[in-house]
Amino acid sequence: MPSYPTLSRSRPGPRRRSLLAGTAGAVLLTGCSDTGSGDSDGRSADAERLRARAARDSAALLRRYDAVLAAHAPLSARLRPLRDEVARHAKAFADGGSTPTPAAATRAPEPPVPGGRKDALRFLATAERELARRRGKQLLDAPGELARLLASVAAAGAAHAYLLTEKGAEGDGEGDDK
After folding, report:
1. What is the C-alpha separation between 52 and 175, in angstroms, rounded?
2. 175 and 169 Cβ atoms separated by less than 8 Å
3. Distance between alpha carbon 22 and the CA centroid of its chain, in Å?
4. Is the torsion defined by CA of 49, 136, 109, 159 positive or negative?
5. Cβ atoms of residues 136 and 147 within 8 Å
6. What does the pLDDT look like over 24-34, one tens digit per residue?
7. This prediction's pTM
8. CA proximity to 70, closest of 62, 125, 130, 86
């Protein structure tokens, strides 16, 4: 350290780059807001149908998790957190709109749960991946808030699919057929 006082190159207060980045972020967030919808309550009938379908899809995925857990109890520690997330997704879609009618008569029968643990995990991973892909396409037609929810849940579904695969289970040991 020099024996004479030096002038500090840094000035107190926010920097120009910080202000520009903050302003750009605020503009982007404002641009994504859902204030300009034409409906009086801010929702279109299409958005309500999309939300109801997303709630039904999440409920169907939840039933698959429950079926796999019933058939393969040793996978419980691995699947329970993912199943709980899917339950929260179903609730988020159901809470945000009109309550979806569980048309049990029109509901397609669930495919049977595979007998082996690896196959059961692959069964869930495929369901998660297909649903994430479908939601990724649906969010293009959804209004702002619903699009954000669909994007978030699609990303979570893709992460679940990864965690259910061999790569996501490295070092886990639970995916082995026994």
Report:
1. 34
2. yes
3. 27
4. negative
5. no
6. 444 344 344 44
7. 0.67
8. 62
